[in-house]
Amino acid sequence: MLSIVPVNDIPKGLDCDISSQESLDYLAFLGCQLIQLAMDNKYALGVAAVQCGIPLKAFVARSQSPYCIEEKLYGIGQHLDTYSMYVNCEYSRLNSDKNVDSIEGCLSLPGKTYKVKRYPTIHLRGKLIGPSIETGEIIAMEVDMAVDNPYDSIVIQHEIQHQQGLLISDVGELYIRSL
Ligand SMILES: [Zn+2]
C-alpha cells in the first residue's frame, strides 16, 4: 500500500524506464496503487508517484476527455474510465489565452487551498500506460496532443509540477474562502 510522505521527503521525478515488458508491468501496477490511493482520498483528481516517495515521472489523473480510453488502450483496472496513468510527461502552453485562476487542494497539503495561475490549455507530450485492447499486454502509448479543456489541463499541470519538485504552496497563494 502506498501512502503520502511528508512534504520534505518528496523526491524529484526521474524518467521511467519503459524499455521492457517487466518495466511496463511494474508501471501498470504502480498506476493501480496510485488510483487506489486517489480513490481512498475522496476520489482525488490526481496523485503523483513522488508524493509517495517514489522518484519517478508518473502520475494518475482523472480525466473528462475521451482520450483516457483510446482505441488502442484499455484503462487500468475497473476505474480507468475516469483515471489514466501518465509517465514521462511534459507540457507547454498551447495558445495565448489568458491564464486562469484555479483554486486547488493537494493530498500533500491537507486542509489547505491555494489560488494558482494556470494555462487554460496545454500541449501534452509523454506516454499513457495501460493494457492494449488487441493483446491485453501492458503497453506505453505515445501522447502528443492538445489538452484543450481547462479541467484536464489544470489537473495535469498540477501533477507534472509535483515531478519538478513544485507544490501549489510554491506556485500559488494561500486561499481562504470568505464567509
Ligand atoms: Zn498535489
Descriptive tags:
179 residues, 3 helices, Peptide Deformylase, binds zinc ion, globular, 8 strands, 28% strand, five-stranded antiparallel β-sheet, three-stranded antiparallel β-sheet, alpha+beta
What is the helix tally? Answer: 3
Low-confidence stretches: 76-81
Report the average pLDDT across residues: 89
- Output the radius of gyration: 16 Å
Share in helix: 10-25%
**CATH first level of one domain: which class?**
Alpha Beta
Count every beta strand, where a strand is a DSSP E run of 2 or more residues. 8
Separation, N- and C-terminal Cα atoms: 38 Å
* CATH architecture level-2 label of one domain: Alpha-Beta Complex
CATH topology description of one domain? Peptide Deformylase
Per the principal axes of the C-alpha atoms, what is the gross shape?
globular
Multimer state: single chain
Give the cofactors and ligands: zinc ion
Strand order of the largest sheet: 1-2-3-6-7
How is the main sheet built? 5 strands, antiparallel
Strand content: 25-35%
Structural class comes to alpha+beta
